[in-house]
Automatic annotation (TrEMBL), chain A:
The lineage of its organism: Bacteria, Pseudomonadati, Verrucomicrobiota, Spartobacteria, Chthoniobacterales. Keywords: Membrane, Transmembrane, Transmembrane helix. This is Cbb3-type cytochrome oxidase component. It comes from the Bacteria. The keyword Transmembrane applies. The chain crosses the membrane at residues 12-34.
TrEMBL record, chain B:
Cu cation binds at H210, H260, H261. The lineage of its organism: Bacteria, Pseudomonadati, Verrucomicrobiota, Spartobacteria, Chthoniobacterales. It comes from Chthoniobacter flavus Ellin428. Belongs to the heme-copper respiratory oxidase family. Binds 2 heme groups per subunit, denoted as high- and low-spin. Binds 1 copper ion per subunit, denoted as copper B. GO terms for biological process: aerobic respiration; electron transport coupled proton transport; respiratory electron transport chain. Its main location: membrane. Keywords: Cell membrane, Copper, Electron transport, Heme, Iron, Membrane, Metal-binding, Oxidoreductase, Respiratory chain, Translocase, Transmembrane, Transmembrane helix, Transport. Its cofactor is heme; Cu(2+); heme b. This is cytochrome-c oxidase. It is an enzyme of class 7 (translocase). Its EC number is 7.1.1.9.
Length: 55, 775
């Protein structure tokens, strides 16, 4: 299709590479989320529940 | 001077929230009404009314733009402004900017509602608005962003709740997507050509189109879910930690999935695979968020029996789960072979917009109205009735589209005699077989619309005679900002970010290269791991602090979010932009249009033909048997904009040129049923009376030349002569076949374009020069 500027046998590594990228992002954010302090979580999750004058 | 905090009362700007909410309800009804009209046109073609302003091709963009930008846009702004002020304990930063945002956005919508039926379009789905409106959208979006970030900067609550993260991702990503996909070169005040063409344009368009769904219809509504659902249920979100994982996984993965709209097409296969894989991985964050929303209702399920707000939210989140299950399913290449170009996709989109966006909007409006007007909801019973009417409407609509889509997919790909002959060679067989389902679709849509009219009435009665109120809150304002300022530099030039970036670089190097480079990258990964361990041991660094500070600093947080969404776009789009040049094409290459054919193409785009006809023969047996050899990349390289389409209500036109004589098109465009009994295509009588616009052609061709289309150098006189000769040739051909028409009419130009479709030339040399357009 195009000249061979594009490597067209990426499929061999593509799935593993994609999963690796996703897993890295997922695990990093999971680690951060799990290490968030309990008090901080309580504070954050309570933010929407504060009421104003008409609630 | 004392450092003690001072107590103060903040009055929120809820007037802006009310404005956006009322606008959203109004535009929702307009968008849905137009939707019902165009659904009816598919059942009864007569509803096109032989009017150029009311055809399916012109009204469908009005429907989609109104639903996305007018209905959901206004709803999003209402929801964001209300929740933002309360989450950061600060009034909106600027009353002037709030007003400018509101009225500017409404002016944009009115401009769109006028220009789209007039046929003023860019010819790209969900990106049809003409360039002056595009600029206005970008400017008003900047106004929104300034107002938003300025409010955050003035906040009295140091922490940024997860809903605000989703809002930040929305603001940044929509700006990026919108600007890139709307880059154009104007030819007049109302017309332009996109700077991308062919496969580039296809890729950029669906990078934008898919992520418009992601970052305009999903992320802001998820933010709204994380604020309003706990409020309505009276309990905190099920898992705040899960919401963090949900956010980062979603914004990172979503941006990669766009190419799943182009499966089995001429798009390079590595991009198709990437789109499919990341779409499948979207299941995880989407369902994580959906479960987090539903489980927030733990212990509050009994309230669903009586509380319409929770009912709408629970159903809305459920539809989010359904739509995000179906989306990845449809992104699997083999499933997509059946579903693509069919009504199945339409059903999928509507389960998202009607079920997720519509129901979340309704739940939020019913929750907000009593608080914005300080009066109980006029009728909870009416709201409950709205819920059931809307729900049945969605189910009728979506079920009809599932059945219709699968029928179309099966019939149009069915073969006999060992796959050598089409089982249903006449495309209209699929159209007539699904016609009854179009009636059910229109009925379902009408029911949903009726529900929203009930909502409008209910909220009008709630507000009528009541006094609009602004919420107030007492806060302790600290003399020094409680947040620990981090700054952009400190946010990024630090150990965790640098190590992570190096890891990604070496990992990509290891996977994407071979030989010495791959080995070097592998050593790099090992070295970085070792360096990281030593660094931690020597410095005794605790990196938690960096992350914790990030949660309180919007600027580096925004920059990190931008980085997360930019990566996917760069990896997919940049290689295609670099190589999509005429000299790089192998196999076949499109023959450039003549000036008259270009004029005919502009008419094709104006009439929105791409809404029903594709120009892309997929690499599938059914497509090839029906339409000819599959489309190659080079065959649309000079198409600005690309017209591959996304739905086949009518047949593919990629190789239409020469398939029928000109007289066939002449009669077909005037009355399609005369040629194709059972067709639901509108009549186009105005093409036989309106003259072809040739005055602007020299400038249009000049712009196309600047974009890289090899049009021959011509003086305006030569160009006019070239147009006249081709017009007269086609008119003479029509006359010989028994039809008289003045050569300067639009139908002649359109026929010239249709007869050119699929014309290409072989390219033998690996570095062949681009051809010059025939005169």
């Amino acid at each position: 299709m195009f000249h061979r500027i594009l490597v067209e046998d990426w499929q061999r590594a593509l799935t593993i590479l994609s999963f690796g990228i996703f897993a890295a992002v997922f695990l990093l954010t999971l680690a951060r989320a799990l290490r968030l302090g309990r008090d901080r979580v309580r504070h954050l999750e309570a933010l929407p529940l504060e009421k104003d004058s008409h609630e | 001077m004392t450092n003690n905090p001072t107590k103060t009362v903040i009055e929120f700007d809820d007037r802006t929230v009310r404005h956006f909410m009322v606008a959203s309800i109004f535009w929702a009804i307009v968008a849905m009404l137009v939707g019902v009209v165009i659904a009816t046109q598919l059942a009864f073609w007569q509803v096109n009314l032989n009017s150029p302003y009311l055809t399916f091709g012109r009204l469908r963009p009005l429907h989609t733009n109104a639903a996305i930008f007018a209905f959901v846009g206004n709803m999003m702004f209402a929801g964001i402004y209300y929740s933002l002020q309360r989450l950061v304990k600060a009034r909106l930063a600027s009353d002037f900017l709030s007003k400018l945002h509101f009225w500017g956005w409404q002016a944009i919508i009115v401009a769109a509602a006028i220009t789209l039926p007039l046929g003023l379009t860019r010819g790209k789905e969900y990106a049809e608005l003409i360039w002056p409106i595009n600029i206005a959208v970008a400017l008003i979006w900047v106004v929104f962003a300034i107002n938003f970030f300025w409010t955050i900067a003035r906040r009295n609550e140091p922490s940024l709740y997860v809903a605000i993260w989703f809002y930040i991702a929305t603001i940044i990503t929509v700006a990026m997507l919108y600007i890139v996909n709307h880059l154009s070169l104007p030819t007049s005040f109302t017309h332009s050509y996109p700077v991308f063409g062919g496969v580039q344009d296809a890729l950029v368009e669906w990078w934008y189109g898919h992520n418009a769904v992601a970052f305009f219809l999903t992320t802001p509504i998820l933010g709204i879910m994380y604020y309003y659902l706990p409020k309505a249920a009276g309990r905190p979100v099920y898992s705040y930690r899960l919401s963090i994982v949900h956010f980062w996984s979603l914004v990172f993965v979503y941006i990669w999935a766009g190419p799943h709209h182009l499966l089995n097409t001429a798009l390079p296969s590595w991009l198709q695979s990437l789109g499919m894989i990341f779409s499948l991985m979207l299941w995880a964050p989407s369902w994580g968020g959906m479960l987090n929303g539903l489980l927030t209702l733990r212990g509050a399920w009994h309230q669903l029996r009586t509380d319409p707000v929770l009912k709408f939210f629970a159903a809305g989140v459920t539809f989010y789960g359904m739509a995000t299950f179906e989306g990845p399913l449809l992104a699997i290449k083999s499933v997509n072979a059946l579903s693509h170009y069919s009504d199945w996709t339409i059903g999928h989109v509507h389960s998202g917009t009607l079920g997720w966006n519509g129901f979340m909007a309704a739940g939020m409006f019913y929750w907000l109205a009593p608080r914005l007007w300080n009066r109980k909801l006029y009728s909870p019973s009416l709201a409950n009735m709205h819920f059931w009417l809307g729900l049945v409407g969605i189910l009728l609509y979506v079920a009809a589209m599932w059945v219709s889509g699968i029928t179309q997919g099966l019939m149009l790909s069915a073969t006999r005699e060992s796959g050598t002959v089409l089982a249903y060679p006449n495309f209209l067989d699929a159209v007539t077989s699904t016609k009854s389902l179009m009636h059910i679709r229109a009925l379902g849509g009408a029911m949903y619309l009726s529900g929203f009219i009930m909502l409008a009435w209910n909220i009008f009665k709630t507000a009528h005679g009541a006094e609009p109120v602004n919420g107030t809150i007492e806060v302790f304002v600290e003399p020094a900002h409680p947040a620990r300022p981090m700054g952009l530099k400190r946010g990024f030039i630090n150990a965790p970010v640098v190590y992570s970036m190096l890891y990604v670089l070496f990992a990509v190097g290891w996977a994407a290269t071979s030989g010495i480079y791959s080995a070097f990258s592998f050593v790099g990964i090992f070295s970085i791991s070792l360096a990281l361990l030593i660094h931690k041991d020597v410095s005794k660094a605790t990196w938690n602090q960096w992350y914790e500070q990030l949660l309180e600093n919007s600027l580096p947080f925004t920059a990190l979010t931008t980085l997360a969404v930019v990566i996917g776009g760069i990896v997919q789009i940049v290689p295609t932009i670099i190589v999509n040049k005429a000299e790089c094409i192998e196999g076949v290459r499109q023959i450039p249009y003549t000036p008259l054919e270009l004029a005919g193409r502009d008419i094709y785009v104006r009439e929105g033909c791409y809404n029903c006809h594709s120009q892309m023969i997929r690499t599938l047996v059914g497509d090839v048997l029906r339409y000819g050899a599959y489309s190659k990349l080079g065959e649309s390289i000079y198409d600005y904009p690309f017209q591959w389409g996304s739905k086949r209500t009518g047949p593919d036109l990629a190789r239409e040129g020469g398939k029928y004589p000109s007289i066939w098109h002449f009669h077909h465009m005037r009355d399609p049923r005369q040629i194709s009994p059972g067709s639901i295509m509108p009549n186009y009588p105005w093409l036989y009376t309106q003259k072809t616009e040739v005055d602007l052609l020299p400038h249009k061709i000049e712009v196309q030349r600047r974009l890289g289309v090899p049009f021959a150098e011509q003086t305006p006189e030569e160009l006019t002569q070239c147009v006249t000769i081709q017009e007269q040739t086609i008119a003479a051909d029509l006359k010989a076949a028994g039809a008289e028409i003045p050569p300067d009419r639009e139908i002649v130009a359109l026929i010239s374009y249709l007869q050119k479709l699929g014309k290409s030339e072989k390219v033998n040399s690996t570095s062949a020069q681009a051809p010059t357009a025939s005169k």
